[in-house]
Amino acid sequence: MLNRHSIFVGVTALLFLLQARAVAPAAGQLSVFAPQTRYQVDVGVRDGVDYVGLTDLLEPLGQMEAKASGASYVLTFNGRKSEFRDGKREVRASGTATIELNARFVILDDRGYVPVASITRLLPYVTGKTVMYHPASRRLFVDAAEFSFTAELRHDPARLVLSFPSPVKPSIAIEKGLVRLLFQREPVVNAGPDEVAYHDTFLSGTRFREVPGGAELTARVLKTAKVSSSEDGRTLTIHAAPGAVADAPPPEPAPAITSTSAAQEAASAPAAPRGPPFVILDPAHGGSESGSALSQTLAEKTVNLSIARLLKKDLQARGIAVALTRSGDETLTWNQRAEAANTSRALIYVVLHSSADGHGVRLYTAMLQEEAGAGEDGRKRRGFVPWEKAQSAYLQPSRHAAAAMADECRKAGLPVRESAAPVAPLNSVTMAAVAVEVAPLGKEAGELATAQYQEMIARALAKGIAGLTGGGGKAR
Amino acid sequence: MIGRGLKIVIAVLGTAILIMALYLMHLRREAETMESAPMAQPLAPPASGPEQQVTVYLPNDEDGSLRALSVSRALPSDNGERARVALQALITLCLRPDSRHPLGEGSAVQDVFLMDENSAVVNLNARFAEGHRSGIEVEWLTVESMVLTLKAQLPLLTRVRFLVDGNSPESLAGHVALGGWLEVALVSEAAARQGGGAE
User: Fold this and answer.
1) SS3 A259
2) What pLDDT digit, counting tens, does each position of A309-352 carry?
3) Is the previous residue joined to A425 through a cis bond, with omega within 30 degrees of 0?
4) Cα-to-chain-centroid distance, residue B101
């Protein structure tokens, strides 16, 4: 016979167990940006791990059906079937691939929850789409929905012109010495260095950083400033207000919107290197030009961009300054890419391609006759040179860079081939220039979309490039 | 009241209209099938002349290699026509079901023009470019194999240019630039670097 004390202990234990199983809400929100939609989903915490509901996350992106039966949870997204099990980390996706989550899968009220940290790895298999997660801002970009901007300081009168590929309408805050632009509705990312110093009488510098739910660009101005937008919303101009007088030197920008986690991430991240980039990465194709169709649902342009972003991240973690020619789904001509590389004052240009044919990594340098008397850095050249042969003085450093990347790929166990080939825009680049084509290891082109394989490629290439810096990206 | 004779005439005419409509639909379907079918008829008269050994360089997508292979073909005396026959022999091997570097159905070389003994212009048909797979390696293997095969026929050749259906294309299938002349020595050197069996 049960006494009152036993009943109390039993009920308390039951309540405790129920509490432990629950995913506590109110750990913030995840902003999802896809080409056709933008939405937010709640992030919950369980055992100190951030979780997100699969239904909330995927329903706006396509045809989704989920069925929970006991410990089993079967998800069908656009015809792709994935199987999850409650309390297990392993996920069987699209029939064959097994993916391991960072923490256990959870079923609650017939709804499936996955750790936020695993979505970059999981979603390409489950949805067939490419995704990029920015933890600092908790923004998830699907199918290269994000876009970057260019910033140009113009004179007479001095003004900073920011150009975007799509219309933007940021929240604007102007205070003494600072102009803050907060992008929360638009998937704005940064392709160049996060901090740029201008040393101008109007503008001393800009700083880009990711804040929860968006991105913030801060301009340090020396006069009272105004922000005006073009009619199409694609250009923002920061300029001096009429009758403006010089302000006192601005303080270092303080975080306008922050949270503990974002601040911690910023503190732990390596400082963004200043000055011209050491390497300029060019994800080939983009926009209306998709490149080759790697599978029925996978375009080359998307894989190229994913690898470029991972490579950028890896290089920055090694203290190497990196710039991208495109960080979203933008159309660029080959000449525009060569121009961007040549004006960036970088030392290495790497154009990234992917292919479903063959295996491993292929590295190409330009197919040109080497210019007589060209030095190791190509600087002995004098006079005018044809645009189509600009690379001829830089063939030695190009081959050196290709060999360094090839060595690291071999060390990583990847099949590697090196060759010369007439690949645009290598001939017009005035620095060491290499084209990289990534193919799957096995026969499945889907492998190219997996975060694991992309990370492996990015790591090997980053090591190769880092080896060229002669120490932490500082040797220029 | 309609007479019996008139009814019979209307019925006969109606049946004739129906039969003609069906026949027209049949003809249209047949014309569409002919349009989409690959060109089966020869583009040039069959080569006449003694059977000789032709060296072709067969690409292999698996390892990115080029393998020299001798095949027997009737070779005409004209150098341009000999070069075309050699390239067509290479393409025929690539079109076989067991090919390790498959090309699109209907791919063919229309002409090879020799500007002088050092320069050749190869005119590919539109199906060659349309049906070609896209990617640096697959496109480059095709170009390399054709340049090396030409070089085997024309030892003095120093440069080659490719046209597609008479026009100068920017690239073969989006990756390998074909807008200008290709230096044969550089192509041979590149093939040798990747173990492609250049001479």
Assistant:
1) coil
2) 999 999 999 889 999 998 888 888 898 899 889 888 889 999 99
3) yes
4) 14
ipTM over 0.85: no
Q: Write out the E strands in A396-463.
A: 416-420, 432-439
CA dist A369 and B183 (Å) reads 9
What average pLDDT is seen over chain A? 82
Amino acid at A187: P
Chain B residue nearest residue A421, CA to CA: B140
Question: Residue B159: beta bridge partners?
Answer: B119, B183
- Give me the sign of the Cα torsion angle B160, B165, B168, B169: negative
Q: Which residues of B touch A (CB under 8 A)?
A: 61-62, 64, 133-138, 140, 171, 173-178, 180, 182-183, 186-187, 189-190, 193-194
* Whether A196 contacts A206, CB under 8 Å: yes
The dihedral through the CA atoms of A134, A138, A140, A146 has a sign that is negative
- Inform me whether the pLDDT recorded for B198 exceeds 90: no
Q: Domains in chain A and their CATH numbers?
A: 4-142 (3.30.457.10), 150-257 (2.60.40.3470), 270-468 (3.40.630.40)
Give CA A234 to chain center in angstroms: 21
Distance separating alpha carbons of residues A311 and A458, to the nearest angstrom? 5
Q: Distance (Å, rounded) from C-alpha A126 to C-alpha A131?
A: 11
Looking at the DSSP assignment, which residues form a beta bridge with residue B56? B69
Residue A284, CA atoms < 13 Å, CB-side half-sphere: 26
Residue A254: the pLDDT is 36
Closest-CA residue of B relative to A424 is B177
A291, A356 Cβ separation under 8 angstroms: no
How far is A341 from A289, CA to CA, in rounded Å?
20
Q: Which residues in chain A are contacts of B135 at CB distance < 8 A? A: 292, 353, 355-358, 437
Q: In the 8-state DSSP scheme, what is residue A448? A: G
Q: Please give the share of chain B, as a percent, with pLDDT higher than 90.
A: 70
Residue of A53, A187, A37, A24 whose CA lies nearest to A116: A53
pLDDT band at A25 (very low <50, low <70, confident <90, very high): very low
Task: Report phi then psi at A348, rounded to 5.
Answer: -135, 135
pLDDT for position A470? 64
**Quick one: pLDDT at residue A14?**
54
What are the tokens at A258? 């922050």
Q: Is A398 helix (H, G, I), strand (E, B) or coil?
A: helix
pLDDT score, position A453 = 92
Q: Report, as an integer, the average pLDDT of B35-55.
A: 65
Determine the Cα–Cα distance for residues A310 and A465; give it in Å rounded to an integer: 14
A→B interface, C-beta within 8 Å: 285, 289, 291-293, 300, 353, 355-359, 362, 364, 367-369, 388, 417-424, 427, 435, 437, 439
CA–CA gap between residue A185 and residue A432 (Å, rounded): 39
pLDDT the model gives residue A284: 95
Bridge partners of A360, per DSSP, are A439
- Decide if A206 contacts A220 (C-beta within 8 A): yes
**DSSP per residue, B63-92:** TTEEEEEEEEEE--SSHHHHHHHHHHHHHH
Q: DSSP label at B50?
A: -
Residue A36 structure tokens: 């056709």
Strands A225-229 and A214-221: what pairing?
Answer: unpaired
